[in-house]
Amino acid sequence: MKFTRQRFQRGSLRRVRRSQNQWAWEYRYKDPATQQQKSMYLSCEQFPSQALVERHLEAFVLKLNCENPILAVHEPTFGAVIDRFIEEERLLEIKKRRPGEHCDHGLSYGTVSSYLSVLKHIRAKWGTTRLSRVKAVAVQEWLKTLDAAPKTKGHMKALMHRLYEKAMLWEMVDLNRNPMQLVEIKGISKRLRKPLILTVEQYFRLLDLLPQPWRTMVIVAQCLGLRAEEVLALHWSDIDFDDLVIHVSRAVVHGRIKTVKTEYSEDELPLDPDFATVLLAWKSCAPQSELVFPSHVTGRNFHASPIQQDYIRPAGCCLAPCPTCSAGSGIWCTEQDGKRRGGLHDERWDAAGILGRVGWHTFRHMYRSWLDATGAPLGVQQKLMRHAQISTTMNVYGNALMDSKREANSRVARMALGMA
Length: 420
Known about the structure:
By secondary structure, the protein is an alpha+beta fold. The protein has 17 helices and 11 strands.
């Protein structure tokens, strides 16, 4: 029987018949560490052509020839870089972690999920393209055609930039200027929508619409300015009721526990006495657990997204005037036919407008704005928000309440009019 055979710098590839007359690709190579001959078998059904299996083996061959990777494969593809990146960063391993597991080593579960999603789109477009043929202008035109927010396109560009850096580190390409530096994306730093800031009255109306434990969760988020993943990861041991401080050190994303977002996010925050009373009242009726907010189903951490979709966002919609009577009481006055979304008619969601976008991060934006309204110095605001840079506090979260802006503006106007 005659086999086709393809020579690589190290190893060979051929098509062989295995058990039950199943055909497979046999890749034979010499282990660089032991110098022993080894074989790897790949399904012909998964890789019907030799070109496909060769492309799949690129990252493996490059790793075998780490001392001189440029000679291993002539002009590796972008897909080979992606495969090596996934393996080096252990993305698939981290993705397989179960809820309740700690993920303090390597990338966080949320970051890995985002990377894998973005890499899927990058591979679909550029996976089979040779590295030398991925041109900056072509990438820029591709990003323009995507139906995505500028920030999402920015993430794609940033990840492609990182992949090129890795390719140079692994000597898959010669050291040179990263072509992704030439790619421009307009509006990447601009928000498509302004952050939603509720008034104090709207906030209390929202609380009235939330049952426990969601109501106390929102109070914690608003009183401390915590992120959703930090609220849901709180333990009773983090709260010192004697010294009135709360230590923020962990977060939970999709049930996977990790340390907080940055080293600046790990800090002790002051605990207001009245707020401490609210927490103690919740502790007296909460399920017995080391968690402040244990799931009534699993006993582990809640997931943030279902709470936002099923409780917080519908409650925000109820703050909008009823399309029947224009009342903003949160009560749907007349039952109408039609589909229901989160317990609310589609008409209510349409009428809600901006109030239909209330979410977990709304309370962090509100916390910053309310700090501004109280006249808190910017340095104190930065510490309470746990930001590394004060520019983040001022620019990203700098949206004051209208009453505060009106009062400040009136002071200047009265001076200009000679009425001060």
